[in-house]
Amino acid sequence: MPAVEGLFTTDDGEPRLIGGRVPGTESYFFPKHLGGADPRVGPVELEEVPLSRRGRVWSYTTSHYPPPPPFVVTAEPYEPITIAAVELEREKMVVLGQCTAGVGPEDLEVGMEMELTIDTLYSDDDCDYLVWKWRPVAAGSEG
Amino acid sequence: MDEIAVLGVGMHPWGKWGRNFTEYGVAAARDALADAGVDYADVGFVSGAVTVRCGYPGYVAGSTFARALGFTGAQLASSYSACASGATALQVARGQILSGACDVALVVGADTTPKGFLAPNAGDRPDDIDWLRFHLVGATNPVYFGLHARRRMDLYGATTDDFAMVKVKNSRHGAHNPNARFTKEYGLDDVRNSPVVSDPLRLLDICATSDGGAAMVVSSMEWAHSHGHRDAVRVAGISTVSPTYPDPVIDLPYLAADSAADPSAPLVGFKESIGARAYDEAGLGPDDVDVAEVYDLSSAMELDWYEQLGFCGAGEAERLLRDGDTAVGGRLPVNPSGGLGAFGEAVPAQAIAQVCELTWQLRGAAGARQVDGARVGITVNQGLFGHGSSVIVRR
């Protein structure tokens, strides 16, 4: 199950972040209900839209120390996590996400094409808790 | 904007003392009052800067400091705006003074920090973006610093040695500051050999969290003149602007930046806009600045500020640094106090501490770290939730 409900979907067989859009415009927000607002627009109900699955690396970093709670450290000893900021193709919006396991800073460069995938954030006895992650398109399987 | 006078400044030394924050704030306040030669009974307004973290008792800072100094019936306020809290407390005090509600105000900020990464309060809060970024991505504050540093390397060819040189420069300044926590002079190899925290940044590139307190006594210009402060340092501009939508630069604590897909939306850089507002209020520009205190949450971030404050063009900050322009003795010294690299961050005190340093600089009282002939100084800082500040002082 999603670690937090309502942020991504795999409904059409393809993982997508769920964003908000001012109807009829190119103003997007993520997460839909926590992404701020366009002050030029009056009160408006954002429409729910799936965001581009692909984008390009804006920047990246690797966290060599385990983040504190509410992050859940899954590997003992801690394995450094790499985080990419990816500018979505259509929305021109930079979105953070962990990279999939095995992707490190040596595999990334600014401008590289990335795609969204759904992966395990952490697990307990009952289930796997899922989140979006980034991986290089070149390393992607089904492309 | 009308000016107010800085009559006195004071600080409790930064460290990891582990005592109640009130103690640091009161010590700084008493120093500032003594420095000003002002009787505490003349203070009509106490403006506290707050931090909000883990049920920490700093929520009511204005009252806490005033009670510890002794309640006098002065009016109170407490300001929270993340790293900019101290500048907001100063701005609130300025508003009180310029509206005529008081003549003299005391501005105080102090903090006791936990060990390790700053993290959100306990509990599950999936509607809190600050909680989500830790839970879903593991995006600590240094992650954002690392992203910006890497971006700078890619855009402008900055190197990790450039970042290290910022730390080396600031540690040289901080070695002469009795209020700094870290007074060791670091060399390039010390930085190069410190462990990586958030690639490409190393431990010595990233500011620590510290305990400390800072305070200012400020008044109307009329009150200053009639009480013998004829040549006081003046606050000429205060900026606490929010970002302007759409801001396409990802920054803490958000999961996503604003969308830049709408071509009709004007793009205004947030960090550029912080200083621009202060310059505007003061009627001054980058060419007028003699000394600056900028928020080096990371060494790389100091370089960004050179450009965002207009000291040079985009991509030219490394040259300023390498030429020694921004060291004490150079053309435009930056962080003569030693900056956050030498202090570590005591959140609600830090923006006040920046102004304390500039006050000493403009008075010619900064000892071995003195910037000769400084008449105009600017601070800039930035933190969580779209908060930032800039203060311009002149003499």
Can you offer a commentary on this structure?
The complex is a heterodimer of chains A (143) and B (395). Chain A has 143 residues and is mainly beta. Chain A has a domain at 54-139. Chain A has no helices and 9 strands. By secondary structure, chain B is of the alpha/beta class. Chain B has a domain at 4-117 and 209-226: Peroxisomal Thiolase, Chain A, domain 1. Chain B contains 13 helices and 11 strands. Chain B has helices at residues 21-36, 61-69, 85-98, 129-137, 141-156, 160-174, 188-192, 221-226, 270-282, 299-308, 317-322, 339-343, 347-363; strands at residues 4-15, 45-49, 75-79, 104-111, 196-198, 201-202, 211-220, 233-239, 291-294, 376-382, 388-394. In chain B, the strands form 2 sheets. Chain B has a 9-stranded mixed β-sheet with strand order 3-2-4-7-1-8-11-10-9, with helices on both faces. In chain B, strands 5-6 form a two-stranded antiparallel ribbon. Chain B starts with a strand and ends with a strand. Classes of the chains: A mainly beta (143), B alpha/beta (395). The interface between A and B is large, with 50 and 51 residues.
Provide the descriptors you would attach to this structure in a database record:
heterodimer, A: 143 residues, mainly beta, 5-stranded mixed β-barrel, 4-stranded antiparallel β-sheet, globular, B: 395 residues, alpha/beta, Peroxisomal Thiolase, Chain A, domain 1, 9-stranded mixed β-sheet, two-stranded antiparallel sheet, 13 helices, 11 strands
Q: List SSEs of chain B in N-to-C order.
A: EHEHEHEHHHHEEEHEHEHHHHEE
Shape type of chain A: globular
**What summary fits the major beta sheet of chain A?**
5 strands, mixed, barrel
- In the CATH scheme, what's the topology name of the domain at 4-117 and 209-226 in chain B? Peroxisomal Thiolase, Chain A, domain 1
> What's the count of strands of chain B?
11
Write down the Rg of chain A.
Answer: 16 Å
